[in-house]
Amino acid sequence: MFSKILIANRGEIAVRIIRACKEMGISTVAVFSEADRDALHVSLADESICIGPAQVQDSYLNMTAILSAAEATGAGAIHPGYGLLSENAKFAALCEECHIVFIGPSSKVISEMGDKDAARKTMIAAGVPVVPGCEMVEDLAKAHEEADRIGYPLLVKARAGGGGRGIRRVDRSEDFEDAFRSASQEAQLAFGDGGVYLEKFVAPAKHIEMQLLCDRQGNVITLGERECSIQRKNQKMIEESPSPAVTPELRQKMAEAAVKAAKAVGYTGVGTIEFLLDPDKNFYFMEMNTRLQVEHPVTEMVSGIDLVKWQIRVAAGMPLAFTQDDIHISGHAIECRINAENPELNFRPSCGRISLLHIPGGPWVRFDTALYQDYMVPPFYDSLIGKLIVHAPTREEAIRKMQAALCELVVEGVDHNAELHMDILSTPAFKSGDYYTNFMELREKRG
Ligand code: ADP
Ligand code: ADP
Ligand code: MG
């Protein structure tokens, strides 16, 4: 087992990883930007190193600075968290070269699955159903021809995309060229790669994903699905497990497809296969996330498996201590992402000093956060400031528990979206489970 791990991330996920390390008796090294000197992850870690100015390009994405910090502190492994460098094949390869374990799959697997266009091809070859579409197209005229063949509405998607960026919906042929250019430009700016491909727009659809856990001995298990259809601008807001739309038979089929996908690339570590599910229960592979996900706690709650600890163990070469038959999903878990943003002002990001903080408690209530009283939320990073997660025997009870917990949550000093979550949970569509990825769009249209 590793004796020291460097956490190449910030915020709630850095805190989550440090906690797992502490329980495992592993020392921790935090890295931080100049804007994060007073951040919670820095005070919780055993050691900490400043890796540069506030902007992520100069700090949390600065591969050389992070690797130097690992070497200087003698860390044997780097945990990348999510976002930032977590799906960066070049960074994983650099770690391999420096003989530092990257806690995730190999750089080869990251590039095979992280490039969404390449992943589609791999899945087609493995016999996993994918959304109808086409491969990456560079030439605009050729792309337009492909688009007319696929039919509208469709999506132009960046092969390097993530976090909902680099995606454009096109409803009519005459709008195609603008969408193609702007998706490509956005992806070039955000990911340094302007390559795009096309997919039929599946609607209405649910976003259902399967959690995988794979060791280096070839054991592949699934830990059930998460439903993540409550989204805004293709970004998840609420996640739950199990999905109210997935029957045991469908779960079995989706799990088999996910295992097939993982085996096709020799996947190791934790990973997620994202699918779209249509109302006729046809499902299509959308992408694989080759990392720990934001919403991993809902799976932890229903499976009783600590995903971060197992991610660290399998990265160290330990075999899984359980088989698929040992996995029992029990009850229902829901997560609400608490973002520092103002839903009334078009979700304008908010920053400032936390003047009052009260974290909800009680049985089966979890709040993953890096906030503390008087903390200054900086303006430079992602707006996620906390994740409220509840677990109950049934979906109905989980909704009530979440409503009670949201009522109790107090975060003053920044704008946030807790009230919006309350409103969503009380809608008939959410309560019945009969909702799709267009839930927020429909709600905003109704006003
Ligand atoms: P998940 O699929 O785990 O829910 P998201 O897609 O919401 O993850 O992304 C997790 C976080 O990482 C978000 O804060 C998002 O803004 C960020 N993110 C996702 N992909 C990238 C990327 N390729 N580059 C930079 N940040 C990313
Ligand atoms: P990201 O890497 O940004 O997470 P995804 O490919 O996972 O990108 O897509 C993000 C979201 O966009 C999905 O969760 C889904 O709601 C929507 N989406 C993506 N592809 C399609 C599609 N072909 N049809 C309908 N919705 C889609
Ligand atoms: Mg996705």
UniProtKB/TrEMBL annotation:
| UniProt EC number | 6.3.4.14
Annotated GO molecular function terms are: biotin carboxylase activity
Keyword annotations from UniProtKB, A to Z = ATP-binding, Biotin, Fatty acid biosynthesis, Fatty acid metabolism, Ligase, Lipid biosynthesis, Lipid metabolism, Magnesium, Metal-binding, Nucleotide-binding
Q: Does the keyword ATP-binding apply?
A: yes
* Pathway the protein takes part in: Lipid metabolism; malonyl-CoA biosynthesis; malonyl-CoA from acetyl-CoA: step 1/1
Q: Which InterPro entries match?
A: ACC_Biotin_Carboxylase, Acetyl_CoA_COase_biotin_COase, ATP-grasp, BC-like_N, Biotin_carboxylation_dom, Biotin_COase_C, CPAse_ATP-bd, PreATP-grasp_dom_sf
Query: Is Metal-binding set as a keyword in this record?
Result: yes
Q: What class of enzyme is it?
A: ligase
Q: Coiled coil where?
A: none
Cited Pfam families: Biotin_carb_C, Biotin_carb_N, CPSase_L_D2
List the catalytic activities from the record.
N(6)-biotinyl-L-lysyl-[protein] + hydrogencarbonate + ATP = N(6)-carboxybiotinyl-L-lysyl-[protein] + ADP + phosphate + H(+)
**The Biotin carboxylation domain, residue ranges:** 1-445
Annotated ATP-grasp domain residues: 120-316
Subunit composition?
Acetyl-CoA carboxylase is a heterohexamer of biotin carboxyl carrier protein, biotin carboxylase and the two subunits of carboxyl transferase in a 2:2 complex.
Q: State the protein's purpose.
A: This protein is a component of the acetyl coenzyme A carboxylase complex; first, biotin carboxylase catalyzes the carboxylation of the carrier protein and then the transcarboxylase transfers the carboxyl group to form malonyl-CoA.
**Name listed for the protein in its UniProt record:** Biotin carboxylase
Organism, per UniProt? Anaeromassilibacillus senegalensis
